[in-house]
Specification:
The structure is a homodimer of 760-residue chains. Chain A is of the alpha+beta class and 760 residues long. In chain A, 31% of the residues lie in helices and 25% in strands. A nine-stranded antiparallel β-sheet of chain A has the order 1-8-9-10-11-18-15-14-13. In chain A, strands 7-6-12-17-16 form a five-stranded antiparallel β-sheet, with no helix packed on it. Chains A and B meet through α13 of A and α13 of B.
Amino acid sequence: MEKWIYKIDNLELNNSDNLLNETIFHNANGYLGIRGCFEEGYPKGYETIRGTYINGIYNISEMKQAEQLYGFINEKQTIVNVADTQGIQLLIGDERFHLFEGSIINYSRSLDMKNGYTIREIIWKSPKGKIVQIRIKRMASFVEKNLFTVEYEVKSINFKGLLTWISTHIGKVQNYSNQEDPRVAKGAVKHLEPKKVVTEGDASYIISETTTSGLKVCSAVRNICSDKKNSTVWREKTGIFEKIEIDIQKEETVSLKKYTVLTDSLRETDCLSNAEVIMNRVTRAGLTEMYRLQKIYLDDFWNRAVLEIDGNEELNLAIKYNLFQLLQSVGKDEYCSVAAKGLSGEGYEGHYFWDAEIYIFPFFVLTYPHIARNLLEYRYRILDQAKENAKILGHTKGALYPWRTIAGKECSGYFLSGSAQYHINSDIAYAVIQYYLATKDLDLIVHKGLEILLETARLWVDTGHYYQDQFHIMSVTGPDEYTCMVNDNYFTNVSAKYHLKWAARLYRVLKETGKIDKLIRKIDLTENEILEFEQASEKMYLPYSEELGINPQDTDFLSKPVWDFKKTPKENYPLLLHYHPLYLNRFQVCKQADTVLAYFLYEDMQSREVMRTSFEYYEKITTHDSSLSTCIFSIVASKLGLLEKAVEYMGDSIYLDLHNTHKNTKDGIHTANMGGIYMAIVYGLAGLGIKEDGIYLSPLLPKTWNGYKFKIVYEGYELEIEVNEVCRLTCKEEVNIPVYLYGERYSLNNNLVLEKKNEI
Amino acid sequence: MEKWIYKIDNLELNNSDNLLNETIFHNANGYLGIRGCFEEGYPKGYETIRGTYINGIYNISEMKQAEQLYGFINEKQTIVNVADTQGIQLLIGDERFHLFEGSIINYSRSLDMKNGYTIREIIWKSPKGKIVQIRIKRMASFVEKNLFTVEYEVKSINFKGLLTWISTHIGKVQNYSNQEDPRVAKGAVKHLEPKKVVTEGDASYIISETTTSGLKVCSAVRNICSDKKNSTVWREKTGIFEKIEIDIQKEETVSLKKYTVLTDSLRETDCLSNAEVIMNRVTRAGLTEMYRLQKIYLDDFWNRAVLEIDGNEELNLAIKYNLFQLLQSVGKDEYCSVAAKGLSGEGYEGHYFWDAEIYIFPFFVLTYPHIARNLLEYRYRILDQAKENAKILGHTKGALYPWRTIAGKECSGYFLSGSAQYHINSDIAYAVIQYYLATKDLDLIVHKGLEILLETARLWVDTGHYYQDQFHIMSVTGPDEYTCMVNDNYFTNVSAKYHLKWAARLYRVLKETGKIDKLIRKIDLTENEILEFEQASEKMYLPYSEELGINPQDTDFLSKPVWDFKKTPKENYPLLLHYHPLYLNRFQVCKQADTVLAYFLYEDMQSREVMRTSFEYYEKITTHDSSLSTCIFSIVASKLGLLEKAVEYMGDSIYLDLHNTHKNTKDGIHTANMGGIYMAIVYGLAGLGIKEDGIYLSPLLPKTWNGYKFKIVYEGYELEIEVNEVCRLTCKEEVNIPVYLYGERYSLNNNLVLEKKNEI
């Protein structure tokens, strides 16, 4: 096994494998994403989700409510499938290359994570007996974010003659529609209309407009083939076609370089001229240079994003795959975030959820803090819309972030497991605070972060109320969507407690400096509100059962009967696909970590004893029907010193997409799970915590591992943490960082080697 | 003011008045309903809801869910607007009669409730100066349920010459669509397609089919005009037209009799031949005979449905109007029930709700028990679908009636204030039990009623569970829709307690007789289940607050803050139109009677002291945003001896439709409120209760009334109850009925005069 290359060499030409590999081998860079479809297409009857997406580019469609009550959402944003520039037909003489005909002598497909491209290699014998070796390299450039390239090499093995490529640039595309899924309307999938076609030299440009959201996208294509004999360009209704003919000798290799540049009006007013500039720049630089820059970018990435298990190469490759996908998925400017499926498919319509802050942000804040910063800037950008959203929900003050969105408006069609998840506010606040703790970057806090913290904190005060001298939050939904609209959800309350405390604390610290006077005026904040924050935080009611010694998920949770797991047949999981939400709501049964997640994020707010008793309690009633669950159980198991359980919960979720364990990777990768796996090792096994007084570690080492190491960036310093017989912390620079190992304080200057315990 | 005629003589030709009067003067008989539209139509730009409906005849349309979760409903039934046979154009010479031209010398519109028809009378002067007196009498026959007639009389005041009627029979119709209401889709309103047109002699028949539900409707029209000069019949795409010319002398009166017969395939397989038979029968009998039969029917009705206030004729007329509407609205066979809007409009899509059993059934069970029986037979007819519905909601046993339906399938698009209202089960059970108590008709109980009781009782056992030795029902919605999906809703629990007790009791009584052996086998009932019913009933948890001495609406209700009524501007009522349901859910605020309704229906299950304290508590937090609320508060006020409050709560809700106080009578009458007013007097002021051991009465007399009287049928005997200085009970037959007056036992043999208290 190669360390940096994820490779498959079996070729199963069925829908399931085709669709899966379109996701697995998609190319993306955080700005654009292209599914790994075959350039030559599939024969009729085969399914494909032939998608190209730009992060943040959406269309709006009607979302009818079966019954319209006040404030119910009536339109939603959907990520738009933009122009299809993947298409390249190859003709060998008069025979068209196709995997479904002729015979395949050799086949492989790989993702090279050091170089940042995918490769498909085929040795193919045509029906008439011509043998070609084809090598197709695809790249979404991390350096030129608008650029996607296809390098299409053909080598003749046993013939000489004419080769023809037909390279297509299709403007008329639509989103994926599964006829069997009643939720995907036929009419709703056409989101983009080509408006203008421009050809300039050998480059073609299509300017398209979204049908309702008023956005423009320009797609540009340039085909470069040095030895071509003839080239013909023609237009059809659907797009632009270029036929390139070339003579090939036996054993000769020829190649076509296809450059795609995508630009959009969300980021640049004139997306056509922007595309022209970029196209000229990148083609002038050439593909070799682009590959070189890609490698430099990735060298830097892998140098920071170190996470290695000593002695388990399969695991390491899967971890690398996951981290690489996070890099491919994450937005790198303020116009976007990271979608549940990254840029690899249309699942969840390309929406951003709390996953971004709670599952994915932690990886970036520890490795690429500037990307973490972008994620927060995106949230700041939509703060005004969050304030509007709060109004719709009845609030007179504050902001409520949308449960799911692209451009900032709530797109959740079912508020019970959507808008009612008020914890999105404290999740975003948590990310702001984590960012501050890991970077001490006050600049972001002063200009954006604190405003987010304060406006979202206001919402808690407006939502909750005092009853019997405690602060209660009624009628919200916690992370676990099997019980909705509950009172005093432990997770929500504890997260609000933390959020309110930090909002007040950062306010008080910064107020002194005079740096936030402008902000205070802008949002009309009074000192009294800060007192309200502090009081609500202090008086926050946290459900606790004396009898069981656990934190109930909500006030009434324990008075419900426990779900009858014995009587539930295997095929009835995930439960949400087999039971009405009203029925599920009547039981103690959890889709995912809820109280247990609170123990990870807010570990200092509950005793280990209660955490342990609760953990055992929730273990028995959690189905992990969500892919966001087991990683959290793993982390908390680690925190409780339950090493075997921690490893068990990690289980094969590290291979969730590679092995398609949830059977829906065709719709896109599971980015939250990928981030969750990172956390399960770094926050879980290593016990990392970034707190006010320094770095915390409580490393555990699974029996089957020799050791592991990872790197983090803390206050700008790169630290390497290695766990094997000992626990070694290294920093190349001379620093003075407080480190708490298993709770004991040390100081890291340059190198710190400490004893590792086997149990905690 | 005439005692039996509701009349208006002002004519305001605006949309608001036109639409209102279409409802107020609609003709219906429980089978068919025709809105009171002008025969001659309205000019362009005026709005009309030109509707003709058949009770139980529905179409199915798609109901998309914004987010589709398991078990969410995806189609709904809608009452169908069938062929329009109201149309009659009148030409005087070459001038077309129209209220919007010429001048109106005299105008009135009336509903004659003794004779059972509506009359519109106009003296009109045409632009050219011809004066006609027009008298249009419309009747929906109670005796021939398929028959609707229009008698169109014209008298010439000052001219002689040609009169022309054009009588139309339009098959191409559609349901009402308000373009401003986003909930009414344009595409969804066409529910019926004319398929076949037949003319036979001077009668025309149109057979139409619903587009999706597979039902057929036949509409037949016959125009009879004895003195006609000429008659021409022609067809256009939309229907059949008949032009009838007649010569008229000065001061002569001529008339056209238009018979409409409607039949349907739900009730008769061959609806065409059925229509032919009926048309022949009714035209042979003639209109005079039909009027005579109508009067006989209504004489009987008014003889039974006595409810008179001594000394307030305005009130009496309004009461009569309400009772007449109930008779017009109620279904009289097993294929239908009584819709929220009766047969007077398309509001709530013609659905049947719990109103039928809790608000309207009580009037019929006391006056026309055979109609009450029909309502129960309808519920029996859809029992299998209720069992299917229970399965969708996750239950393995029992039946859950749909919250809203026509043919039996759940049509609620938003389960929180729909399917989650499990109390529909105990509401229907309550009606079965009331029917039994008032009639002792064991035949219905043995063959249908008990099966309903048992299957619905099973659902409670499957829904609830034991916790701390009490039986709890979690995650249901009570009648008050401002707090949804709550735990241990007092109303639901107390109603289930009563329901379970009665299901077991009637089972035990009938088991002895051997009459239900077949039923027991059919539904596979075990003795153990009956024990479960009894135990659950006995152990039912009923929320009670020691501190306040009240029954909280649900477990968590009192821990929520009270809604800030002071800060709520008037224009923000009804709250549901101005606040998100999630926001409302967070407060102590009630849309309608909930716990208070339980005190009326289940008065023996709580002490008067707690009822009184609770009543005062809920008074302060109930907005009465539902038209089902104040009548219940009035009843309970009476029960608590709060006479002034009782009168105050009745207020002007007796005029709700006549005065259009809710501003939406255009969409149809409020049948539940009409039944509620009846109850407010009979069950409230008179304190009537039909219980196991006899009749209960605790009459109160409002200061402004001299007295009141009403009649009820009890065990087949007609009793008259009169309240003035004394309380007098009369039965024409010799009986022996136990009567409890203010709790004291008496025996009614033939005549019983008892002292009336002024306070209780």
